[in-house]
């Protein structure tokens, strides 16, 4: 008989919650909708959440092999499984805003719970059922030098007690700190003024100006370059189906060199971060004085060009080198009228796409006041406009998790940040269904 089957018999006899099957999916269907996978199973030793988390999340895995024993593993899994599905008020102070835990919080919740279990074990309470109020007070007191962390632990312990009815092998036997807020328990004091220093105007001004330029102008250049590379790769792949041979490659290279000479352009230069691959090469005006063979191979539609390196070194000495190598023309920077950057190549394009994402974040955060986590939950095509009393307003919609175990479970709510055309400040509102 399997471990899961043994547990099920024991739970049934003891009147405890039914065991969750090892092959049951961890994530609710509302989270995995639209993905190719349903995600990890309950019995997995590691829950890999990468496909379902924002690209910017640093921690995307939960490793249960780091816990003390199987009872701890089952308890933590059941707790996380319940937190993703159930909105359990943890005290009479809880409001209607109580909701299931967001997936972005799961890894942090696991790490904090692992810390609590290890601290309790070292204090003489290896099981939650053996923990007393004094043990829990000691956990929080040990973090008095970090009030925010202590508040996080207090909140988690309260949730752990609230979800106790859904834990089968181990649970707290009481509700800790009744009637007291997390901040009061952790001795967190809130300053009257935000303690984070404001970004000085002489820094914020140029930052916002550059970010807006990236979003409104440079983005067109970046996306055009991306399309150009995609077309070159498709053409290269198409030619690859036919054997070009040395003669055909030589003809293609001679045609490419002649076109560069006629246009007065240099050869695509080796990217600066690849300088170590060409010992002895120098840098002049920020451009490596060596050919970027991969970029040349893409532009000519040929394969490996190592046999032609000597040729391109000679041609480079004649024509010179340019950064990037693509034909996409860079837009002018408004203050100078000069191109906002040198040309783009494969390496430079990857960097600029990263910068463009950062610029989008800066613009949204600055103009809307949205939090980082809210911005990262914005999906494609989330911007929309709608008619209003004084004209159309601009909106950003962030999809929120639907309610569970209720008649509202089939609906999705969105929080919108809207700005009226008259320039009034952005406002937050909640709508019953996504407008996009």
Structure summary:
This protein is an alpha+beta fold and 436 residues long. 42% of the residues lie in helices and 8% in strands. It folds into 3 domains: 3-186, no CATH class; 201-348, no CATH class; 369-431, no CATH class.
Verbal overview:
By secondary structure, this protein is α+β, with helices and mostly antiparallel strands. It has three domains: 3-186, no CATH class; 201-348, no CATH class; 369-431, no CATH class. The protein has 13 helices and ten strands. The chain has helices at 3-14, 29-32, 70-85, 106-122, 133-141, 147-162, 182-186, 201-240, 245-263, 293-300, 309-319, 346-368, 372-376; strands at residues 46-48, 61-63, 267-268, 283-284, 287-288, 321-322, 383-386, 393-399, 414-419, 427-431. The strands form four sheets. Strands 7-8-9-10 form a four-stranded antiparallel beta sheet, with no helix packed on it. A two-stranded antiparallel sheet has the order 1-2. A two-stranded parallel ribbon has the order 3-6. Strand 7 and strand 8 (393-399) form a beta hairpin. Helix 3 packs antiparallel against helix 4 and helix 4 packs across helix 6 (147-162). Mean pLDDT is 82; it is low at 1-5, 7-14, 400-415, 420-426 and 430-436.
